[in-house]
Amino acid sequence: MPRVSLDARGETDAAHGRAISLRHAEGAESIAEGVEPVALLDASGNLCAIGRRTDRDVRVVRGVRL
User: Fold this and answer.
1) Are 39 and 48 within 8 A, CB to CB?
2) Is 4 exposed, middle or buried (0-12, 13-18, 19+ CB in 10 A)?
3) Rounded CA gap, 26 and 20, in Å?
4) CATH of the domain spanning 3-63, picked from 2.40.10.220, 2.60.40.790, 2.30.130.10, 3.40.30.10
């Protein structure tokens, strides 16, 4: 499964189920559009959501509560 590292803003967006801009998702630009699932990781490397890469952002498909 492809992995994307989120910055603080990306983590907040993922936690609220909002679309995550590519600038807040390190590694997302190298993932092809439409790829799902994508592991969305916080700064510590913990899974915070599962996403799908779109043409302009990463969309949360499923949140993860720890």
Assistant:
1) no
2) buried
3) 11
4) 2.30.130.10
Confidence of residue 64 (pLDDT cuts 50, 70, 90): confident
Q: Which residues of 33-66 are buried (b: 16+ CB within 10 A; e: fewer)?
A: eeeeebbbbbeeeeebbbbbbeeebbbbeeeeee
pTM: 0.92
Instruction: Give the pLDDT confidence of 15-30 residue by residue, as tens digits.
Output: 999 999 999 999 999 9
Backbone angles phi, psi at 26, to 5 degrees: -65, 125
Give me the mean pLDDT over the 45-49 stretch.
96
